[in-house]
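Appendix C: a fully annotated inverse folding record. The material below is reproduced so that readers can follow the format used throughout the book. The structure is listed first as tokens, followed by the designed sequence.
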């Protein structure tokens, strides 16, 4: 019989994986990996902000990441800075500022848990946040799937067809920011982008349609959660990084299988 903490860890990890995988497809298609890292680094500032206002850390992370998403959308649209420069400035400055503020306020924070996750310590409240946020994000992705996909393929053509590509880009940024906030306690701010990108890259190897890739990415992420938690309990390794290693193992196996299939067909 599974312990309560392990059941909560499994449920929390599955909730994140099922939404991070499909969203990671758009991150991959739009080459937004650095944006995901920026939001993840900003989550540390969100923790400090939440503590300073006596709010739950999750609330502070959501607020700060949403503000950062809006600022980045404005900065990249104005073209005052290059996109890479704007992301680099925001990513590293928000991480450094968050760490400095936490130190100045004298707050005792589990820094390792913040950076690499502490999925085995999820509470029922954390699960409510994760599954509520995941349901909201999956609902929005389903509702906006076709216009988001059209704007991802060709923004100019999408605008010509009356699709608000700029607004959809902002919506996508907000969705990524929310996933970062939700996933912070599962895999930590340094690894959340990996949980979006690796399952998406794995599914891309065999998916025939964008929809199949999104569904496959969610399933690969769920499998990685199971493998990671099993490995963590079996070998006493950190759970968050173990989940990402599980995703990497699936990616390598799929890549090897695809390579072997090509060799077999060529022979």
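Designed amino acids, in order:
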């Amino acid at each position: 019989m599974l312990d309560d903490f392990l059941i909560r860890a499994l449920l929390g990890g599955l909730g994140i994986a099922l939404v991070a995988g499909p969203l990671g497809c758009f991150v991959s298609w739009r080459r937004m990996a650095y944006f995901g890292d920026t939001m993840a680094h900003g989550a540390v500032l969100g923790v400090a902000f939440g503590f300073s206002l006596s709010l739950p850390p999750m609330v502070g992370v959501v607020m700060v990441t949403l503000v950062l998403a809006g600022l980045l959308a404005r900065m990249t649209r104005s073209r005052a800075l290059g996109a890479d420069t704007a992301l680099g400035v925001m990513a590293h400055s928000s991480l450094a500022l968050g760490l400095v503020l936490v130190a100045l306020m004298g707050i005792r924070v589990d820094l390792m848990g913040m950076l690499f996750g502490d999925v085995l310590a999820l509470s029922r409240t954390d699960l409510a946040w994760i599954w509520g946020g995941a349901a909201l994000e999956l609902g929005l992705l389903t509702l906006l799937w076709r216009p988001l996909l059209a704007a991802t393929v060709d923004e100019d053509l999408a605008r010509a067809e009356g699709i608000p590509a700029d607004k959809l880009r902002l919506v996508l940024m907000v969705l990524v920011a929310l996933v970062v906030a939700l996933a912070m306690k599962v895999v930590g701010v340094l690894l959340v982008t990996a949980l979006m990108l690796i399952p998406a890259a794995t599914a891309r190897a065999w998916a025939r349609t964008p929809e199949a890739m999104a569904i496959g990415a969610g399933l690969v992420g769920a499998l990685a959660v199971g493998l990671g938690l099993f490995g963590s309990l079996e070998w006493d390794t950190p759970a968050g990084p173990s989940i990402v290693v599980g995703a990497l193992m699936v990616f390598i196996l799929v890549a090897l299988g695809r390579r072997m299939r090509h060799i077999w067909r060529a022979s």
